[in-house]
Amino acid sequence: MTSISGRCTVYRLAGRLAKNRYNCRLFSNTAKAEFKKSAKNEFIPQANRSLASPMRLKYTWLEALRAREDGRVLAESNAKAEPTIEERTMDDSFTSIMLPFKHDEWLLDAYVNSTGRLRIGQIFQDLDALAGVIAYKHCAPANPTIVTASVDRISLLKRLTAMTDIELYGNVTWTGRSSMEITIRARTKPNNEVFLTANFTFVARHPVTQKSYPINHLITRNDTERHIFERAESYNEAKRQAAKAGGLSNSPPDAEESDIIHKMWLEQKKLEDPNTDYQLPNNVIPMKDSIMHSTMLMQPQYRNRHSYMIFGGYLLRQTFELAYCCAAAFSHGIPHFISLDQTTFRSPVPVGSVLYLTATVVYTEFQKVNPCGTFVQVRVDTTVQDIEHGKSVESGSFTYTYFIGSKHVAVLPVSYDEGMQYLEGRRHAIESKKFGADLAGLGGTADIVTE
């Protein structure tokens, strides 16, 4: 969502930025061809755009700022009060983008971490941006305001063992009245092996009134598409029912969960007993000691295409990297990403606000079988504060699961509140159909090239 001159192609702009950032040559001929092929979607890989957002913007920040100061509405849209609803197929919204890592070392350089592995957080930004492209494609010719409502799940199905070209591709797989589910996959090229799946929910709003905006209907054409649609519909209904139930905030733990918390409470009582010399094992860490904080000022370079709010993919990357640091500090090991569980964006994050992030290890589970290690679940809570008025609101919660190979570490909740966080984490683990299922194809961790 970045401003692009009409006289400059997407590729030239990306190439110039890459050259300025790294003081190096422009893309190779092979990478150039791949980039031109994907540029038709106006999508530019986030890391290669320096600080800019990866999708097209209509206005510069200074133009948007002046409009806000003058009380003018910047929304440039053909979103009618009563839109004409059309029918769309899954193929109509299909979109793909190539990341030619094998053929362009400088593009790859923007996506690797200090250990030489792919930064999953960078990929998250591209996933969210591509989902936005797909959403607007489905809604065309109407152009409502579309925002990320939730990330339902991102799962790493298989570790990459060699740097190769990657294709991100996806389409709309379900629609409601004003919401849609978008499924994106990542696969290696040229062998087309899918190693990552992601599901996003986007909602459409009228750009002026901000009320829900009807979108085009998705129709299915065969049994495969009907199965995909019905799965998504069933999941969204279950999500609505879970939201109504309120989880542990409204209902007490069941008998099994109460027994778990009682045993942990007895462990804590041993520590508090002045008549014993009992100490926690070195591999058991109180939950409060796992907490890690980060504070950030939200700059306009990270805004979405609507000019005044922060791009959701940027928030995904920041929360992922804080969660990664939290898991690493907790375990004294190298975390390997397994999944991002359901995440809801409760409130938008305005440009110019302060974002507070708090990461906590809320659940651990040791696995004895090969590969031996510990699953560490980290929840990142975010709060946004308006600088001028000092008002703070919760903006979202993100739950990440990592695997720490050859490590046996455990988190210990001490207070009742921490116990409820632990049980919520356990429920996430069960809902994800066991941590081990996400490790299919993982094997050893010595040769992997992803976080």
Report on the architecture of this protein.
Helix 5 (120-139) runs antiparallel to helix 8. The longest helix is centred in the middle third of the chain and has 23 residues, at 223-245. The protein contains nine helices and 17 strands. Residues 1-27, 48-54 and 435-446 have low confidence and may be disordered. Strands 4, 5, 6, 7, 8, 11, 12, 13, 14, 15 and 16 form an eleven-stranded antiparallel sheet that branches. The protein is an alpha+beta fold and 451 residues long.
Descriptors for this entry?
451 residues, alpha+beta, two-stranded parallel ribbon, 9 helices, 17 strands, 30% helix, globular, disordered N terminus
Task: Provide a compact summary of the structure.
By secondary structure, the chain is of the alpha+beta class.
